Amino acid sequence: MCILVGFPLAYFIATRATKRKTLLLVMLIIPFWTSFLVRTIAWLIILGPDGLEGFFGGLTGDDVNILGTQPAVLLGIVYNYLPLMIFPLYVSLERLDRRLLEAAKDLGAGRFAAFRRVTVPLTMPGILTGGLLVFIPLMGEYVIPSILGGAKSYMVGNLIGNEFVSAHDWAFGSALGMTVIALLLILIVVYFRVGRGGATEAAR
How many domains does the chain have? Predict the structure, then answer.
């Protein structure tokens, strides 16, 4: 979801928003000036009875429960982690040589073909970096599912936390934590190898 939302936005900022580029980047940075917990709690009001839940409930006349659902958790995750995806994508798109796109069009490639065969491969380092920056903290995410999902939403971070706090099974909690760490280390190694291979291919 962060890639699907972040790529078009990063592409627009890097290629279209010439005069408002700085303003849009500042607007992406501003949320980081407040606490992660405060930003998440704010969604309780937005998705609660006085916000979207009450709005859609008034339109349909039925009870609309947004809080405590997976879509609420997904919305909170995308909102909080989206800048971590946009900035690497923006840097990759900003460094993209526009002459390559013009050459692809001169050779008969359409917009979609040029995007698929030129833009996406050349911005793959930004896609991988953004994916890694989002995935690493998301694996240990505890706050957003607890606040927006309640007891109905369960993620790896909640499972590990409950093993220590509620179940008092420190051995199993430690095993889960080490499993997550090992998985992340494998992904980081794969990332560096793929990035190195991409840099070698680009140099050729």
Answer: 1
The span from the CA of 86 to the CA of 64, in Å, is 32
| SS3 state of residue 139 | helix
pLDDT of residue 88: 92
pTM: predicted TM-score of the whole model, two decimal places: 0.80
3-state SS of 42-83 is HHHHHHCCCCHHHHHHHHHCCCCCCCCCHHHHHHHHHHHHHH
Dist. CA 188–CA 182, nearest whole Å: 10
Say if 188 falls within a structural domain. Answer: no
Q: CATH number for the domain including 41?
A: 1.10.3720.10
- Terminal CA-CA length for the chain: 33
Q: Is residue 196 part of a domain?
A: no
Q: What is the DSSP letter of 118?
A: I
**Average pLDDT, whole number, for the chain?**
83
102, 183 contact by CB (below 8 A): no
Highest mean pLDDT among 7-11, 35-39, 158-162: 7-11
